[in-house]
Fold each of these.
Amino acid sequence: MPRQQHFGWFFARGFGPQGWGRPTYDWNHRWTRPELYQQSVRELEQAGFDLLIIEDALSLGNPQTLNLRTRRAYGGPKHDPLMLVPYLFDVTSHIGITPTVNAGAYPPYLAARQFATLQHLSDDRFGLNLVTDTGSARHFGLEPLGHDAAYDRAEEWLAVVRRLWHSWGEGALVQDRATGRFADGDRLDAFQHDGEYFSLAGPLNAVPFDNGDPVVVSPGGSPRGLTFAGTQSDVQLALAPLHIETVRDYRGRIIAAAEAVGRSAADIRILFVFAPEIVSSAEEADRVVAASLHPGDDVLLAIAEGQSSDLETDLTGLDLDRPIDPVIFGEHVSRGTIKGLLGRVDSFADATLRQLLTAKAKKGRISDRSGFVGTAEEVADFIEQFGDEADNDGFIFSGDLHPVTLHRMLDELVPVLRRRGVLRAEWGDGGLRANLHEF
Ligand SMILES: Cc1cc2nc3c(=O)[nH]c(=O)nc-3n(C[C@H](O)[C@H](O)[C@H](O)COP(=O)(O)O)c2cc1C
């Protein structure tokens, strides 16, 4: 039998204008209403997916980038995914929902209380995708912290949130109808926390969980991010090139960090972001790949728009047939994202913008591992190989949450994965944490 794996969906544009700018937007759904998300999450649950992760950004960023972020809706608007979560729980019974939560935005007591409530409301299906971006600090009247300090704050935040969740000690909840005793207040942990970033008192006024704490997902891929995952998280949302060796290495770094603090590989699920393009035949795959080698200017412009939003630098007005001057990127722009634009080229001097964008447009066949276009059987072969040869825990599919994308990705693939025993066919009843630890 192949290794059974866990699957999820990363709702990559958050609670925002899903699919804007794509031809299928003509479907004309109302992204500000819950119905599209409710319909989609039901389908993900039927598919046997363990969790849905909802991307978020707290604000539109700097005054200089407002237009870049909003004009094609790549960076906003976005509504608060936490508010959407109860609507999604209401129409499902097994799938876990994990909205993105920025540790800098919620005072720990408020976070512990709100998340405890959602964990109870959902029968233990709540989780948080914990991020540390500080680009929105000024909207909260906070000083922006540096990269590692933001992780330090998130660690303290999580420790104190967990302490609050556990502030009802063994036997504190009595609920004895015969004596009329509801609780034993002497068993509550009325602690005082005075840390580097937070000062607050316990205990929390919420009752303990039946099936463990809400699941903590983390997506940071820097060395500090991987250590955070190993030492703190239940799930790592991993973004890395999907080669057997890279996946093994990425897993190894997180597991080493986990073992250094007495945890083990069994305590964490490392799930890789994956966006295959599923087609109906090998011939169609060849056609899609061949067409991608000669993109029109409209395709290049669409890629330039997405890159401009990520890089907070407008590429769309530049001459396609000249190299880029790297000084156009501000100091604050992530070096990793800039490197992402360069792809296989060593420096901006080596290639014109057209060549860089054309390289981004290029697709490849999943069957020869040169890309992600393939039939459902070929994509299932790929998934199975990562489980068996890299001990992979699973994948998080990514894309705009839209009925069309979802059906394209799942309708043919899910039956194949089920038949092969890679994807779960039934659920336990212990919530998200139990599902993630079932195998
Ligand atoms: C797959 C993936 C998804 C992410 N999703 C979000 C998100 O929804 N919101 C956010 O503010 N940051 C998000 N991030 C960014 C990281 O959580 C983190 O804030 C930032 O990358 C710093 O971490 P790093 O330097 O360790 O990668 C995501 C990163 C990755 C790789």
Amino acid sequence: MKSLRLCGSNQPNQPFPNDARRMSKNPMRESILHLVREFARQQLAPATFVPGRDMVPPAGRVLDPEAYVALVNAALDGWLTTGRFNEEFERLIAQRIGVKKALTTNSGSSANLLALSALTSPMLGERALKPGDEVITAAAGFPTTINPILQNGLTPVFVDSELPSYNPTTQAIGAAIGPRTRAIMLAHALGNPFRADEIRTLADRHGLWLIEDCCDAFGSTLHGRSVGSFGHLGTLSFYPAHHITTGEGGAVFTDDPLLARIVESFRDWGRDCYCAPGKDNTCGKRFDWQLGDLPCGYDHKYTYSHAGYNLKITDMQAALGVAQMARLNDFIAARRANFLHLRERLRDCEEFLVLPEATAASDPSWFGFLLTLRENAPCSRVDLLRYLDQHKIGTRLLFAGNVTRQPYMKGRHFRASGDLAVANVITERSFWIGVYPGLTTEMLDYAADRIREFLGVGF
Ligand SMILES: Cc1ncc(COP(=O)(O)O)c(C=O)c1O
């Protein structure tokens, strides 16, 4: 039989085993997966930690044999692009956050880009963001929380954060609202929630959109409710440092079906059609639409309602995500336990260090253990970080610090609300060490002791 060659970027170009054959139990597949599981068990066998010789990383992936099996199982499907595993992964993410819809993306940065770009859609009518509109955001944080504002021709309005939560207060956000303000886009700082409940109320009062960047906060709760469920849109990152990983990856989620449809369009080339890869005519009107200035019946698959991207993930990534979701609760519990352990071990350093504190009414799923050297500390941050580096203890900064001081911000148009004094303190004196589930008590103690030693506390 002659093979059917279909044109178009999302069409298979050769005969493909049907779904039933792909997914059916196959003894050869079972023995391959058995071997993979055994291989992973050997690879992942824990090594003995030798203090001073082995790294205490600030973050990292935590894989188990099932993660390897999931990756290979999806690869054996031969489907490659988003497919059955992605459907399941998106369902699990939405369920976990407590919203109607999650859409996976190839990174947390892409998720942020999609979330903000969605708000520029003409489908939102009067509420669509227009060039020159303002978006309030924190000055201190990760650059790709902020960059989508610039990339969409909007103006960032930077607000200061407070210590020891490292988030802006609701009052600071309120004070930054001006006549052109249309949205608020904030990250939960290193897993510690900002007051998303209060800020959503504030946003509603002023007719503003709220995007919650939860890239560092998967599992954090406020009043027992998952962060990300307060805003109109939320985002996650699955880069290896994060709470779960898909290698590269992220997600946008929302409770609003219209926003979900817009995000999906921006993610999938900007198309109006919402067929899953390999599917046709989901809307049942593929050749019946008349949109834009196109002729009537122009294939809906090739009709574009947005200037979109392609930011989808592969089904191997999604399968890994599904395997990681099964471990999310354990990961969160380990992060919380490690955080408490470090806090206890560093309690008597408070004279020199600002210790992190959870926001009122919150239960953070901590990304790291954030510290700020007080002005009276006996050393500079760079000296302390060098010392920790020499002792193989990994450290990180609160990302870009005060982003207005970064080289790429030179000459850009923005507004600063207030003097950003705390963002400057964060830039000059804050850093964090790890709490991720791959760290043992021995590693945490070693890291805490080296900090205490350098500060001359208890030594
Ligand atoms: C708060 C925040 N937002 C967004 C991102 C971007 O995520 P990704 O690295 O997956 O692009 C990060 C990365 O760590 C982050 O910390």
